[in-house]
Amino acid sequence: MNAAAYKSFSVEFTDKDREHLELNFRLADTIADFIGPHCEVVIHSFESFEKSVVKIVNGHHTGRKVGSPITDLGLKMLGVIESTGEITPKSYFTTSKDGSLLKSTTCVLAGENGKPIGLFCINMNLSHPFPEIIKTLMPDMANAPVGVQENFGASTTEVIEQALEHAIFEVDNDESINLKGRNKAITKLLLENGIFEFKEATAFVSERLGITRHAIYKYIREFRA
């Protein structure tokens, strides 16, 4: 890419633009943690092509670090953005300098007034033995907590219902909780899981447990005290 093309892509950055970029740093850490050590996540800034990498996780896959330059493909993408306005995320296969096969995707990041200010890139190294990659995704091999309960309801009622079912199951299988303390223990679990943040939760739970809303409010006050 010639000097004139470089000049046409220069972006005047504001403090807000830098803030917009930095807001994605935690997302980069989250994605890398979720996918695992075979995934590199990079954020490029258009403020400086020579030192465009402002955030990178697992940079050992491509040998880059913060302060590394933008790639030639990144510059080519900028040309497409400039000429067509096309910013749809693109997935593609490429190779790193050590010959590793990477599956990559790139998303354009927008700053103040919607102007393109950088790229969010994910590179999955596919050259490692597949069982090695799978190990990082399995609960008995990964470092992530096992058995975390999450309710994926399509409505708030469904989330409340599923959470209540799990709370009932947990309490009814706990031999240390007697019948007298059952409803209070169920309410405690639901409170700890944040279920009473839903407006209709109190009415739903009281009806299902066969107790009054006043009783649930009383339990909640006791726990919060």
UniProtKB/TrEMBL annotation:
Protein name (Swiss-Prot/TrEMBL): Transcriptional regulator
A Pfam family annotated for this UniProt entry: HTH_22
Domain YheO-like as annotated: residue spans: 25-129
Organism: Photobacterium swingsii
Origin superkingdom: Bacteria
Domain Transcriptional regulator DauR-like HTH: 165-221
